[in-house]
Amino acid sequence: MRRLKLIGIGAGNPDYITMQAVNALKQVDVIFVTDKGEDTADLVRARKELCERYMQAKPHRIVEIKDPRRDRSSGGSGGSGGSSSSGSLGAYRSAVATWHEERAALYEQVIREQLSENECGAFLVWGDPSLYDSALRIIGQVAALKTMEFEWEIIPGITSIQALAARHRISLNEIGAPIHITTGRRLRDEQSANGIADGINVLVLLDGNCAFNELAEDDIDIYWGAYLGTPDEILLSGKLEELRERIGEVRASARNQKGWIMDTYLLRKRGAAS
Ligand SMILES: C[S@@+](CC[C@H](N)C(=O)[O-])C[C@H]1O[C@@H](n2cnc3c(N)ncnc32)[C@H](O)[C@@H]1O
Question: Is 84 inside any structural domain?
Fold first, then answer.
């Protein structure tokens, strides 16, 4: 039977990969590399370098899948993954659902044609497959089509939020308190009206538009990180009202220089013990 592995490769540093992932890579015959048009050449290259480093002599084939473009006209995002304030969340979700269906059909075809019976294939997922990544859903949809039999498993990886916490040497949560993980779009829509609740740390991913600028409160600390785990990593932390402008400038300049940026941040009310 065909086997598929969704392997979390960690969010930046090649050393973030787990031994379980390295051992899984040694069984793989075909690496499926997806190009969503959002992933930069740098990220595709990072995946290929991981294969060279960890698969060593294991012969394998690399099969590229060119993802269909997502329709961004209805509620589409201005940055990666739904960070625009324009368009309703419903329209955005519906555009993403249609895009996922198209991708599932394409992935099904590529897997069926490129992975032989008894071979093992893998998708290398940035960070961890369970956090803001569509590979898991899409492979689930491919399995539901029941056009071919395959086994599939998920190998967890280190997420960008774990990398952020480690690099800033902070806990993700206050003592015994919940954390809230969200996108720039939702921070803009929800927290800007309600503010950040006492004791709840808010983690923001997929923010192409510095949504923290919408927060009016003056008692919030921010822990911001870009290109975490890579040689280009940038870390800034302190009072949001003092740092927001600087983060905006640093972010814009880094993005201009490299042509892309991935950043994540944690927001918390000042004075709460961690
Ligand atoms: C599509 S999500 C993927 C998240 C990923 N699955 C994970 O486990 O972190 C992409 C977002 O993750 C965050 N991200 C991923 N890698 C990052 C890195 N090395 N540094 C900072 N943020 C990162 C950014 O917020 C980016 O917009």
Answer: yes
